[in-house]
Every structure is written in structure tokens, then in C-alpha cells.
Write a structure and sequence with these properties.
The chain is α/β, with parallel strands linked by helices. The chain has three domains: 144 residues, no CATH class; 73 residues, no CATH class; 143 residues, no CATH class. Helices cover 69% and strands 8% of the residues. It has 15 helices and six strands. A six-stranded mixed beta sheet has the order 1-6-5-2-4-3, sandwiched between helices. α7 packs across α8 and α14 packs antiparallel against α15. The longest helix has 35 residues. 20% of the residues are buried.
Length: 377
Amino acid sequence: MLTKGPLEAQHQQKVLVVNVDRDDDLGRKAGISTPVVGRQQCLDAGVKLMLTDPEEADANAICAAVAEYDELKAKGYECEVALVSGTEHGGFEADQKMLKQVRAVVDAIRPGGIVLVSDGLDDEMVLPLLTNIAPVISTRRVVIKHSASVEESYIILGRYLKMLVYDSRYSKYFLGIPGILLVLYGIFSYFNLYVDFGYILALMVGAIFVFRGFGFDSMLSNARKRTFFLARFFAFLASLIIVIVAGIQGYNAVTQLYFWPPQSASILYQHLGLVVGSFMTNSVLLVWVAIATNIGVDAVYHVLRKSTKVVRDLIALAALVLMYSPVLVLASLFERPTSSAVPIVSLLLAGLAVLLVLIYVAYGFVFSRRVSAHDKD
């Protein structure tokens, strides 16, 4: 928009239309040295810059300066148009370079006033400098009506919104979780269950953060692609159920003790060994079964794949079997501290000895197979 100054008073004097390029896009992109004086020369410079970078705003400002020149010329004003530029880094050096170029053009043309055309506030910072050379009688800032970046931003925003709604990877968080919260809120409100909904919200959001933050969703997704996933998954569920049953069974055994429930913490501390021993005695078998279930499934998987990792699984099963009796002896020792600890020590030593022999034999066998396979290759 043109801010008109006292042009009528300058009608008989020459007017200089100046376009300033403070960061020297003309020189850096189009290789044009300034100052450029004359309508055709300025128009050629603007076209060259536009061909070099069609998105450059300075090219539009140059065309606007030429258009301003034509408009003033059509109204009968004697005028000239010029382009001046600064430096790439701006600042003091750029201002001094533009000041020198404007002074040279003004000395050659001797205008009565200057019309400044720019494409932004950065170029208009030279305005106070120009007033020291000649009166600035009008300014014009060029604002591009169509901005591709703005349009692209709307397009990208629309794509992201569509992805959040229709892409299952994101919709389950963007729509699914808020939907679950709204359904829960509706159910609680319908049945007049006055609970603090903030706790439920914090619990669900926290669970989502933990699940996603530790990559559990990626781990589950990758695990589903593996062979034997269902077998391992059901083995894990079965083991979990067995452990829960073992815990319940051990707790029921503890509740049958003669001092249960304890009347004070001192009584519980006094009989702590009996509580631990009773719990272990009645739950260890099921816990061992749960562990063996997972190891057994892995062993079957490694056997089917003919993997040497089956040796590791067999050693784990052997260790589990060997450690069962010592754990039972340890539980009985908790229940009856006066009993001798010699059996548990002997069993542990014997179990470790057997385990070491098994490991030595197994790995010797695996190593010999690898050496023979390498010799065949």
C-alpha cells in the first residue's frame, strides 16, 4: 500500500524510486552487481532473480518498484528507478554499502525526493539513513498475497488430522483413549458412582506413558511376528496363573497357623521364619512348575530350529530340578530353626557339582560339533 507524501510539491523535480535489498539476494543468487539504474535494467534484474529463485520475495519487490515507477511516470512525474543492495550478513557493513550506493545514484540523478519500496521491516531499517541523503517522500511495503508456505502448512495440517483419525497407529491414542475415558465417565455418571475421575484419568494416562515410553508396544508388535509367539504367550499366561495360585495357596497355609492373625507386629516378627517357611513349602512346587513351563516351551522351540541354545534350556531345567530339594529343606529350616542345616548344605553342594558336570559335558559337545562343522566347510 502506497503511503502518499507531498508529491505535488515535488511535481517539477525528479523522483527516485529505490528498492533496497539489505541481504544482497541479487548478488548471491543472481550474480547482479548494484546499483542498478533504469527501468529496463531493473526489470531484467528482477526477472533474472525470479528465474533463479521463483519464491524470492525481493523479486516481487523489484517488480513493485518498476510498477511504482510506471505509475508515477504515467501521472507526469519525472522519475527514475534504482536497485541497491547490502551484504549477506547485514548489519553495519550492509547499511554502509547501501548508503554509499544511494548517495552515488542521488549525486548522478539529483532527485528532489526518494520513494522507498521494500518487502519487509528489515529493508525498511535503511529508511533513517536515506533521509540524510534526500527527503523520503513516500514508502511502500510489498506484501505477497499468496504464500505457498502457508498453503502447504494447511495441507500438511489436514493430512496429519486425517492420519490421526484414520491411521490405526495414531487413532488408538487420539480417539481410542479419550473415547474410553468418555465411556467410563458416562457409566459412572449413569450409575451415580461418585468417584474422583481424576484418579482414573491419571492412572490410564500414566499407564499409556509407561507402555509407550518403555517401548512395550514395539516389543509386543515384534514378538507377534516371531515363530512360536502364541505358544510362548500362552506359556507366560499359564505361568502367571500358576504363580498366582501358588501365592494364594501359600497365603492360605499361613492363615492356618495357630497364631494367625497376629495381634501385634512383635508377634509376627517372632514367628516370621514360620510364616516364610510355611508359605514356601506350600507354594514352591507350583512356582517351579511355572518356571519349568516357560523353559520347556523355549526348549521345544530351539529343538525345532535345531539351535544349540537348547543346551542352555536343558541346563536350566536340570538346575531347576536340582534346586528343588534344597529349597524345600531351606523352607523346613525356616519352620523349624532347631533342625540341622547339614542336609541343605550337602544337597546344595551335590547339586552344584552335578550342574557343573552337566555344563562341562554340554558345552564340550557343542564345541566339538562346531569344530567339525567348520572343518567340513
